[in-house]
Amino acid sequence: MLMNTHEARLDALRKELQRRDLQGFVVPISDEHMSEYVGSYAQRLHWLTGFAGSAGSAAVLAGQYSGKGAAMFTDGRYTVQVREQVDANLYDYEDVPATGPAKWIAKHAPKGARIGYDAWLHGVEWAEAAAKELGRKGIELVPLDGNPIDAVWEDRPAPSLAQAVPHDDRLAGRSSADKRNAIADWLKEEGYDATVVTALDSVAWLMNMRGADIANTPVALSYALVRADGTADLFIARDKVSPELAQHLGNAVTVRDRADFVPALEGLAGKSVAVDPDRAVAGIFHALEKAGATVNRAEDPAVLPKAIKTPAEQQGHRNAQARDGAAVVRFLRWISENAPSGEVDELTAAAKLREFRGLSPDLKDTSFDTISAAGGHAALPHYKVDEQSNIPIPPSSIFLCDSGGQYLDGTTDITRTVWVGPGEPTAEMIDRNTRVLKGHIQLAQARFPLGTNGGQLDTLARMHLWQAGVDYGHGTGHGVGSYLSVHEGPQRISKSGGAFAGTDTPLAAGMLLSNEPGYYKPGEFGIRIENLVLTVEVDIDNAEGAWLGFETLTFVPLDRRLVDKGLLTQSEVEWWNAYHAQVRAILAPQLEGGDLEWLEAECAAL
C-alpha cells in the first residue's frame, strides 16, 4: 500500500530512522552531482514534504523533542510557496540564511543524538561545517550507508535510461580530445595525477555529449575521471551508450559502468587528485581519503573554458535566439489579443508559448519551467505555476513571463513584462518599469576594463531604482550554457557577498550572461526585463589597455505602454529605437500576416 499522505511518509521516515538508531536526518534538494535541477528519482524532498521549489531542505527528528520535530528551510524566494505546499501541522517554516538545518538541529535535538545525512547528496564543506556546529552541542553527524528515504519510498522512479548522444564538434567549436588535453596540461602544471569531474554539465561539455536524464537540461547521468596523460574514464550506465557515442568518444576514453565509479576512486591510492568542493559531494571526498589518495580542493577545470564560448557556440546562440524570438513574438501577439478577455490562465499561457516554440524542429526542450505569472504572482521572482496556484490573467493587469528554450545550437532565457488591457497601467507601474528599463540599458551599454567582475557592474542596473528608494532581491545576471544549463557559472552579475558565488569572477570575452533587473511589489505586480548578452572586446578611441562590453543577443519587442518617455534620456531613446530596429530586421523575415503586422507596430520608433 503506497503512502499517499505526507504525514504517512514522515511517519515512515521516522520509523526507519529509529530502526537505524538515528535521532534525525537532513533532506536536501540534490542529487549525487549537486545539480540545480534533479531527476524524478532524486526528488526526495518533494516526495517527503510536497515542496516543489528548486532550493530548500528539511530536517526531521525521529522523536518530537520540541515543536513539531521537523522543519523546512527556504530563502525569501519561497516564503509564499513553502506555506502553500508544505503542511504547517507537520513542519516549522525556517528562513535561510538566518538559520539552517544544523543550527536548528543543534537547538532542538538532545545531547548525544546521532543525526544522519547522505554524503552523496551534500557538499563536503556543508558536512564539515554542520559536524562542527553540532559537535559543539554534543551531537554527532553521521554519514549513512544508503538513504533512509529510499528505504521507505516504495514507488520511487528509477534513474533515466535515455541514451546519451554525441554533440557535434561543429556546434561545440572544439573537439573533446582538445578539451581533455587542455585539462591534462593543467593537471601536469599543478602537479596532480587526475581530476574527478562530477557536475553533469561539465561532463557533457568535456565529452561533447548530451543526454535527456534531467528535465530542461540536456545532460546524461555520468562522472568523468581525467588523467594527466590525457586519457579519461566515463562512468555511465552501459545501456545509455550507443555505438555512435562510443565511436565519438574514441580510444582515449574508457567507458565504464556507473557502478564502477566508487571502486575507481578507491583505486587512486597514493595519487594526487583534484576535486571541486563546490560541485562534488562529500561521498567522493570520503572515498578518496579512505583509499589514501591526496585530495586537493580545486575548481572544476571545465568550468571556466565552458563559460567562454567558442566562435561556433557564439554564432549558434545568435541563430537560436533568432528562432526563439519569432516564437515569443507569436506568443506576445496571442496574449495581447486573448488575455484581456480574462479567460486565459497562467498554465494555458505557458502551454501556448511551448506550442509556439515547438513550431521550430530545432527545439529540444524548454530550458526551465516557464514562469507564467499574473497579478500578484508576478511579484514572486521564482514563481512556478501548477494546478493549485494557477489563476486567470486578470484584465487590466501586468503579466510577467520568464521562459527559455533548449536548441541544439543554443540555450535561451528571456523575460518580458506586458500590460494586459483594457485600460492603462498605473503611474506607479509605468515609473517602475521605466526605471527597470533604464537599468537594463545602462548594463547593455556598459564598457569596462579587462579584469572587471560582475559585482562591480551590478549597481549600473539598480541605480535608477535606488534613486526612487526601491530595489530587487535577486541577482542581475547569470551565466548561460551552450545547449546546456540555463544557469551556468562561474560568472554572474550580482551584489557582492558570499551568497553569490561567481560575483568576483572577472568577465572575459565569450562569456554569456543574462541582463535582468526587476522590481516587485508584493501582492500586486512584478516587472523584469531580461535579455541575454555576450561579453565582447570593444574598441574605444585612445583607450588604455583592453576593454570589454556586451553584445545583446535577445531580440523581442519591449512593451511601450509601460514606458514613460519623459524619464528617458535622449541616449536611452536612441538605444530603444536602435534595439527595436534590430528586432524588426531579425524577426520580420520569419513572420507573416497578423504576426508581422503586430511586430511592425511594436517596433515603431518611440
UniProtKB/TrEMBL annotation:
One of its GO terms (molecular function) is aminopeptidase activity. Its EC number is 3.4.11.-. Signal peptide: none annotated. Keywords: Aminopeptidase, Hydrolase, Metal-binding, Protease. SUPFAM superfamilies: Creatinase/aminopeptidase, Creatinase/prolidase N-terminal domain. CDD domains: APP. Residues 9-146 form the Creatinase N-terminal domain. Residues 547-606 form the Peptidase M24 C-terminal domain. It holds the Pfam family Creatinase_N_2. Residues 317-535 form the Peptidase M24 domain. The keyword Metal-binding applies. InterPro entries: Creatin/AminoP/Spt16_N, Creatinase/aminopeptidase-like, Creatinase_N, Pept_M24, Pept_M24B, Peptidase_M24_C, X-Pro_aminopeptidase_P. Belongs to the peptidase M24B family. This is Aminopeptidase P family protein.
